[in-house]
């Protein structure tokens, strides 16, 4: 498992390139890769936890055997002091059995402790690599989303430039210009078709203004 994870960066990059070649969604593929890596880390955490538990069990067995060695040694000394050599001998014989067990447990415990240290270091490397890949994934996702947005905008603009929307807009502009031309023409026609009465009314309006102007000039002696 650890060897597999150590090669995960190369695996992710190669698979991502393959996904792009097959026109697969790179964002979805990146998310899947990260989920797989997360599962690998959880499996590794479980393995480390089991190893640590085994280390603790071996440590306890080693400590128990060491305690029995010390206990039988003390009991043998007490038996000798009490003059009971047979009891002292039996205590020493049982002590030897516990010495064998103690040495065996010590060796197993030290090996387990060393393995635990290596596994913890490997797990730390996995997590650091996962964090690096997470940062890289976020960057790649942002780039992918930006590229998709640009592509969509370019396609939209291309459609507007050559599509029916622009043609329709041009038609409406021509129609407005035509309406404006009709309005100007109708005003010219109206001005050219004024009746005689309209002209006299206009003359009368002009005369009234002239009369008011003459009165003001007379008031100020400006005649």
From TrEMBL:
Region of interest (Disordered), ranges: 142-167
Composition bias, Polar residues: 154-167
Pfam families linked: PspA_IM30
PANTHER family associated with the record: MEMBRANE-ASSOCIATED PROTEIN VIPP1, CHLOROPLASTIC, PHAGE SHOCK PROTEIN A
Similarity comment: Belongs to the PspA/Vipp/IM30 family.
Name of the featured protein: Phage shock protein A
Native organism taxonomy: Bacteria, Bacillati, Bacillota, Bacilli, Bacillales
């Amino acid at each position: 498992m650890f060897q597999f994870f150590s090669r995960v960066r190369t695996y992710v990059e190669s698979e991502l390139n393959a996904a792009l070649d097959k026109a697969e969604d790179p964002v979805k593929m990146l998310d899947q890769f990260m989920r797989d890596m997360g599962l690998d880390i959880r499996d590794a955490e479980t393995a480390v936890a089991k190893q640590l538990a085994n280390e603790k069990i071996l440590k306890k067995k080693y400590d128990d055997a060491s305690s029995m060695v010390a206990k039988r040694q003390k009991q043998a000394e007490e038996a000798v002091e009490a003059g009971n050599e047979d009891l002292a001998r039996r205590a020493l014989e049982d002590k030897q059995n516990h010495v064998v067990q103690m040495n065996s447990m010590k060796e197993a415990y030290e090996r387990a402790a060393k393995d635990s240290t290596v596994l913890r270091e490997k797990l730390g490397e996995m997590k650091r690599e996962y964090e690096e890949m997470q940062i890289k994934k976020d960057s790649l996702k942002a780039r992918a989303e930006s590229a998709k947005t640009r592509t969509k905008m370019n396609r939209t603009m291309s459609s507007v430039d050559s599509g029916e929307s622009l043609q329709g807009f041009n038609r409406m502009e021509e129609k407005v210009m035509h309406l404006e031309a009709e309005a100007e023409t109708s005003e010219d026609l109206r001005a050219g078709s004024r009746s005689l009465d309209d002209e006299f009314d206009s003359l009368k309006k002009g005369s009234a203004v002239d009369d008011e102007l003459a009165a003001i000039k007379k008031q100020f002696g400006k005649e």
